[in-house]
Inverse folding.
């Protein structure tokens, strides 16, 4: 089947669902599930399994869920000026209003604009509201070469989402930071520290 999410401008996001398996689908029971589906933007293939419920109709945000997932063939060129293909896997658990999630991701050909393909490895620890879509980023790391970028912040908003991040590089290399942005080898090399907001 497909899940269509209608947008205010009249367009829609369509999520093809290739397989959905559910057990113990009954009132006052915890449901077990397994799903194989695609995402539209960025395109990717998700496989997830876990538990949901029992459904708390009076206070939906207190309904608990948990599970694990893999997210493969993520086309980064569907997002702004990024390019490359990413894979991710992780776990999640908690009430629907505050789902704690951790994940690891890798891309061997990440680039920005016409930059050179760069191998990166990422890790995230966050809390997601299944009611509003707001995300609190407790800790994010992205590693390229000998450089690790640390970040924390949030994505939130009712009328439209805005993201705020604090970014830190303690002992990095200038060439590692510049590589995915440039068409040619970085014109500078050497140690770098940076703080950004």
């Amino acid at each position: 089947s497909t899940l269509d999410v209608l947008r205010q401008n009249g367009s829609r996001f369509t999520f093809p669902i290739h397989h959905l398996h559910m057990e113990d689908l009954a009132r006052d029971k915890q449901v077990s599930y397994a799903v194989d589906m695609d995402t539209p933007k960025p395109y990717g293939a998700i496989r997830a399994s876990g538990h949901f419920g029992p459904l708390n109709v009076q206070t939906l945000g207190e309904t608990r869920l948990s599970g694990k997932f893999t997210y493969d063939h993520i086309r980064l060129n569907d997002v702004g000026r990024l390019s490359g293909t990413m894979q991710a896997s992780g776990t999640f658990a908690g009430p629907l209003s505050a789902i704690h999630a951790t994940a690891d991701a890798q891309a061997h050909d990440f680039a920005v604009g016409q930059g050179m393909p760069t191998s990166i490895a990422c890790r995230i620890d966050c809390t997601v509201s299944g009611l509003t879509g707001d995300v609190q980023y407790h800790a994010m790391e992205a590693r390229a070469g000998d450089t690790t970028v640390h970040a924390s912040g949030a994505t939130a908003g009712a009328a439209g989402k805005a993201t705020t991040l604090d970014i830190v590089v303690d002992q990095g290399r200038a060439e590692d930071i510049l590589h995915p942005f440039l068409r040619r080898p970085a014109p500078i090399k050497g140690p770098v520290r940076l703080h950004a907001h």
Summary: The chain has a mean pLDDT of 94. The first strand starts at residue 2 and ends at 6. The two ends are 42 Å apart (CA to CA).
